[in-house]
Design a protein that fits this description.
Order of helices and strands: HHHEEHHHEEEEHHHHEHHEHEEH
Strand content: 15-25%
Distance between the termini: 77 Å
Helix content: 40-55%
Radius of gyration: 27 Å
Structural class: alpha+beta
Number of helices: 14
Amino acid sequence: MRGPATPRPQQLGERDREVLRDVVLTYIVSAEPVSSRTIARHGQLSLSAATIRNVMADLEEWGYLQQPHTSAGRVPTASGYHLFIDSLMQSRSLPARDRRMIDEILAKAPPDVHQLLEAVVLVLKELSHQVSIVLAPAPSETVLKSLELVPVAEHKVLCVMVSSAGVVDTKVLEVEEPLSREDLVWISNYLTENFANLSLAAIRERLIALMAEERAQVDRLLAWSIELARRGFEASGAERQLIFDGTHELLAQPELSDIGRVRQLFDTFKQKARLVSILNRLIHADGVRVLIGAESELTSGLDFSLIAAPYGIGSRSLGSVAIFGPSRMEYPRMIPLVRYLGEALSGILEARFADEQEERLE
């Protein structure tokens, strides 16, 4: 014989929802399992401890609360946190002072995109007191601003590429045939005019198409342009870079009172490839994503949560901004914080890209 079906979140009664909200908020502050007596003492629900106990028992049966020990109170499950986030959490925007702090710090960030991302990580750590993470754009997403080829020896050419974010990359290329400075100036101008404002991935696709054209085998300078561009635009690696800070911010949290969990935390951040893989799956998410506990191999072992938001230029997602910390983190403040930083970073990158476009048209 089957028992009653577990109610969907929208089917919970108002009393169930109020008790769950109070349990989540109390646990976030106390880090201790919450008892019915504690909720009753708050006096906000006008319910007896016995009634609250029955409601909490129902919420546990339905999977929104769990009881760590037989005689202890209850704590939220991942489903309980998600219900709180989705429909019980009072909508909160980021405080004006935090927005000002973010805007001022990012406005002063250097033009180099890596230093800009480091500034994002720093301000996120300062405001969240959690581990702060930024997934940098993939090398293939680098947008070219200009390219210059300079002879450095009879059979060697220095390739200098400048991205739209101001990052300079240099490579020395071997050439079988000596090329004059005039030839290299022509090739540099041709490549800049034809490939500026394109990502390296788009450039490689265009080069493949050009290499297939018969005229590329006939025109000597065009053939060299394609060959030098192919070598110069080869990404140094497909691996995204991960920038993070704040692991020591968590050591004062009760969840890390066990030295074994501390080791697990630091081991987690040694496995950068796994972190990159997880965040890479979130960059095309619509808005803020929250992964809690067993929902991800990153968060499950520590019973932590990951809050991530994408950033990019227009509809093109480039990376993500995230915080990582105990599941009982202050979601009403952390979610708006991550969202605002993702939007602020996108705004800066879009403005820089627009400036590059305007300069090119002048």
